[in-house]
Amino acid sequence: MRTIVIAIDGPAASGKSTTARLVARRLGYLHIDTGAMYRAVTFRVLEEKIPLENADRISALAEKTQLRLEKGENGLRVFVDERDVTEQVRSAQVTRSVSIVSSYQRVRNVLVREQRRMAEGGGVVLEGRDIGTVVLPNADLKIYMIANMPERVKRRQKDLQGAGVDIDGVALEREISERDRLDSTREASPLRKASDAIEVDTSGMSVEDQVEFVVARAKEIIEGGGR
Ligand code: CDP
Prior knowledge:
This protein is of the alpha/beta class.
């Protein structure tokens, strides 16, 4: 049976990760969370105490860092230089700094090369900001997920509470808006919808509906044999 490449892009807390993970599970595909890769580099930058404005040192660090995503029992596990940093990459400090680190072209070059390599054989669901526009412009299925701000804040608050972090809605909204702004206005691969992506507003949708929607589109392509 034909295996395809699925690209899911969109802003923070729009439903990408959950959908990508479950779609990959339904199809028996590999889930690649590219945001986790940018977060892993950011974790190392903070650990090395490199100033966020030092593009050269950050790029050099990205170039020599080994990243690995591995399927774990509760989702993907993230490794840097063979250390498991799955929990650390979700810290507030990483979240605050990741949009600066990911704005550097040399950092993106390293990670995009790796992402393309992982997608080579097909049978993959990649999620991020620039998958359909830059990383894999020929992806078989492109989804662009959005959701309204109250819903995004609610979802992120629930995720964080699950990890034992209590943060008020106003602060979260500020953080999400700032990341949207940085991600969509940067020069290198800004967040935007590819012209051939299907936009899905997940505000009123359940997780099951989101997954079903993407799986149904994927099956049409797989069974149709073409794009
Ligand atoms: O999960 P959440 O929506 O909070 O974000 P993420 O997918 O983990 O991505 C974290 C950050 O990495 C984003 O805010 C972007 O700055 C950056 N990123 C990127 O530049 N390109 C990608 N393909 C994926 C993430």
